[in-house]
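Progress note, sequence design subtask.
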């Protein structure tokens, strides 16, 4: 099916937004937001931002509050078209039928080998729409797994690959999601618990809890409260069934958690040796998800990459792109701009 422009949103003075849809090779309907600057800069690759395991694309990258839209900031600063998709099971994209049933009736949904089909559909639409030969993929957390996995399978379509706080499989030790963690099988600690269902629900408090823990005793010095409120609000609004529970809660597939468990156990779901893009690996020094060993292992394996640059941002957290400029966001934007210059 050919891509379809479904809605043109009201334009701001600096960026224009449009909503697009496309379908994956296996027929899954996918939603994409285009964020386009008022003035395009010739020769800049279109940028695709891939969200992580729980909050879909708009909540992660295009909040309507100051400092909450990485998509708009990149579009304005670089003069590039920026695309914010939701992969299968998330936000405005089609959900597996199993997500309409109790979670215990299915195994973890939206695994990486499926999501790369979604990334491929988005990349193909973006290339057709812009006339570009390659794209820049930016993946945050589990979005980094999907971006890297895709870049290893279709290296000719990815000119730049930017991974933010992403696992790779550099160590078998991870207290949160690795062997022996709460999601491991108690009888076989290096195996995922068979009790993990297809998806999980999260209310606003659950969405903000890991972020709150990483901010220290005075969260407002690192994070604008308006951004946090918009993040939780947009996440809940992304699921039309969020009002079915009290308090409201959104559904998120758990395939990303299963894949992350494998990576946190030292297993690599793709091999970076196939990647030919210019690579930027960014990690907040206080990130609870990625590990220094992940960056080291990726850089070691990516022998065919055009270049590999590693940036660790002191004091920065897992959510650094949504925090205040001085908390790591400005440093991240500078690193991306330098990589794409």
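Output:
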């Amino acid at each position: 099916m050919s891509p379809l422009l479904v809605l043109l949103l009201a334009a701001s003075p600096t960026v224009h937004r449009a909503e697009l849809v496309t379908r994956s090779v296996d027929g899954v309907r996918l939603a994409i937001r285009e964020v386009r600057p008022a003035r395009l800069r010739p020769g800049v690759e279109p940028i695709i931002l891939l969200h992580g395991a729980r909050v879909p694309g708009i909540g992660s990258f295009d909040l309507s509050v100051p400092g909450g839209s990485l998509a708009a900031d990149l579009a304005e600063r670089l003069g590039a078209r920026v695309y914010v998709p939701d992969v299968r099971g998330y936000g405005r994209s089609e959900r597996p039928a199993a997500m309409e049933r109790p979670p215990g009736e299915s195994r973890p949904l939206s695994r990486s080998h499926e999501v790369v089909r979604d990334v491929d559909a988005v990349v193909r639409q973006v290339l057709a729409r812009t006339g570009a030969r390659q794209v820049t993929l930016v993946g945050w957390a589990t979005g980094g797994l999907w971006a890297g996995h895709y870049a290893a399978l279709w290296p000719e379509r990815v000119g730049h690959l930017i991974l933010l706080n992403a696992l790779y499989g550099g160590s078998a030790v991870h207290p949160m999601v690795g062997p022996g963690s709460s999601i491991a099988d108690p009888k076989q600690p290096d195996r995922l618990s068979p009790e993990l269902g297809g998806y999980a629900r999260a209310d606003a408090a659950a969405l903000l809890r890991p972020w709150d823990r990483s901010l220290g005793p005075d969260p407002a010095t690192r994070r604008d409260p308006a951004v946090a409120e918009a993040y939780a609000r947009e996440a809940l609004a992304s699921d039309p069934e969020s009002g079915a529970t009290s308090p409201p809660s959104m559904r998120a597939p758990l395939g990303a958690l299963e894949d992350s468990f494998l990576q946190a156990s030292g297993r690599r779901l793709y091999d970076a040796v196939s990647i030919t893009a210019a690579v930027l690996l960014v990690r907040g020094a206080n990130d609870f998800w990625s590990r220094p060993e992940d960056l080291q292992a990726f850089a070691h394996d990516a022998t065919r990459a055009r270049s590999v640059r590693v940036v660790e941002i002191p004091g920065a957290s897992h959510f650094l792109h949504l925090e205040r400029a001085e908390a790591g966001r400005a440093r991240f934007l500078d690193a991306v701009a330098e990589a794409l210059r």
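The CA atoms of residues 123 and 187 lie 42 Å apart. Work on this subtask will continue into the next period as scheduled.
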